Amino acid sequence: MTGWRSSDMPDQHGRTAVVTGANSGLGLITARELARRGARVVLACRSEERGREAEERIRAALPGADVEYRALDLGDLSSVREFAAGYPYERLDLLIDNAGVMALPRGRTADGFETQFGVNHLGHFALTGLLMPKVLNTPGARVVSVSSAMHALANVDMGDLNSEHRYRRWIAYARSKTANLLFVHELARRLTAAGSDVVAAAAHPGYAATNLQTAGPRMEGRRSAERFMRVGNRVFAQSALAGALPTLYAATARGVRPDSFTGPGPVGWRGAPAPSWRASWTRDDVAGERLWVASEQLTGVVYEGLPH
Fold this sequence. Notes:
InterPro entries: NAD(P)-bd_dom_sf, SDR_fam. This is SDR family NAD(P)-dependent oxidoreductase. It comes from Streptomyces katsurahamanus. Belongs to the short-chain dehydrogenases/reductases (SDR) family. The chain has helices at residues 25-36, 48-61, 77-86, 115-136, 169-193, 212-220, 223-235, 240-252, 285-299; strands spanning 16-20, 40-45, 67-71, 94-97, 142-146, 199-203, 261-264, 273-275. The longest helix has 25 residues, at 169-193. It starts with 15 loop residues before the first strand and ends in a 9-residue tail after the last helix. The protein is built from nine helices and eight strands. By secondary structure, it is of the alpha/beta class. Strand 1, helix 1 and strand 2 (40-45) form a beta-alpha-beta unit. Helix content is 43%, strand content 12%. It has an eight-stranded mixed beta sheet, with helices on both faces.
């Protein structure tokens, strides 16, 4: 995988992709590069204004690109259901569960879930489940979840999924990213048990310069923290394009294995896509099944076509 670049992606003509959070940062780059290689890309974004703007930006950069905005708010399960019900295509080759929030002040989704767990994990769990019939009916399809090296800070707390007992923003973020990896682990296991060739894989961007780092401090008016994050992005981070490469690799490269975890470089901070270290608890079969069952109960979404 040494030196793998977006130009190394196989041709994507005839394939359809959904990219969540495609209005900015890693999601925008991921959507743009898939469109560059010929994919039809659905930009699944919460903000119509920013989603339409992203659509225009991609078309300006790539005349003739097949991209379209569709509304999706991962913090509202009714929006997730509306998106899935309105998905207009018979096939879904690539589902890129990219959107996320990081280290926000305590908050709740429309359905009452802690924001980071609700958006980063439960919203994507529900979306993937509702679109699973399309995925299963598409030969060679892939589901890619974007996690983080920060998952190493904390395992999920099955007794306190909503951080009711104590809320620490970075721990809550880490738990949501561990949940992403446990989800991929359990999804890959269930796909194999069903005899499906669908690949469920995970990726992380390392330290990439996006607006994710500054969102939390900006929401709270912590200007010094926001400035600190901006300086870090300028001095230490790699570009958003470099940060998107592990996701693009997991989504399109040949030979990607189920339940793999791709990150940047050997140290997981920056560099070309490579196999990434992950905490042992993210491959725990018992934890994966427990989180899956809890997620079904919380979202009301049961995966059709997969063993229970």
